[in-house]
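We now fix the convention by which a protein and its fold are recorded. The integers have meaning only within a learned vocabulary of local backbone shapes. A complete example follows; check for yourself that the lines match position by position.
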Amino acid sequence: MPLDPAYEHGLLLLDGEVAALPPGPLLYVPPGREVVRLSGAGRVLLVGGEPFAEEIVMWWNFVGRSHDEITAFRKEWMEGDGFGTVRGYDGAPLPAPALPGTRLKARGRVR
């Protein structure tokens, strides 16, 4: 599968089996790769785009610029504000896990 080498990508196995792609977390593919070779019988989700130019904090399903921003996003999620409505899902929203006991740190482009 061709890739844009200026982009960073993520691969997620949706179902089946694909060599070198375990089920579970997103597989990160840093910028610079022009192709990824996959073999097997499975469905894979490919996402990608230009790397963030600024430092970011990623935690659970939230992406922000600081620990405080992630804390605010978690509070909004838990209170049911600001994230819209999920249609077609018959159940309560998943609760966000508790934040770790230390401040979350931003990361730059280098992984």
About this structure: Residues 56 and 65 are 5 Å apart (CA to CA). The chain has a mean pLDDT of 89.
